[in-house]
Amino acid sequence: MAESQPAAHSPSKFCIFIKTVRGKTLAVPVSLDDSVRELKAKLNAQDSSLSPEAGMLHYNGRQMEDDLTLQHYEVTPNSFLYHT
């Protein structure tokens, strides 16, 4: 019997990039299990002007919901997300 192993293409931690409406680009370390809400908190820690309550994130033309994970949106390493 073959043992189940984690997929090699699914790194547990990786960086993504966030483009803000002010034209700033931030590199953020994340994991696929992070929720969008957790990602917003990480952004706020890097730039206090990016309020987790007020801002929205978009990926692949979709508005991201706070309670869903990055895995749900199939975010991959070095992806660009947009903060509005």
From TrEMBL:
Leader sequence residues: none
Domain (Ubiquitin-like): residue spans on this chain: 14-84
SMART domains, per database record: UBQ (SM00213)
Highest rank taxon of the organism: Eukaryota
Pfam families found in the cross-reference section: ubiquitin (PF00240)
TM regions (residue ranges): none
Stored InterPro entries: Ubiquitin-like_dom, Ubiquitin-like_domsf
Annotated protein name in UniProt: RL40 protein
Organism lineage string: Eukaryota, Metazoa, Chordata, Craniata, Vertebrata
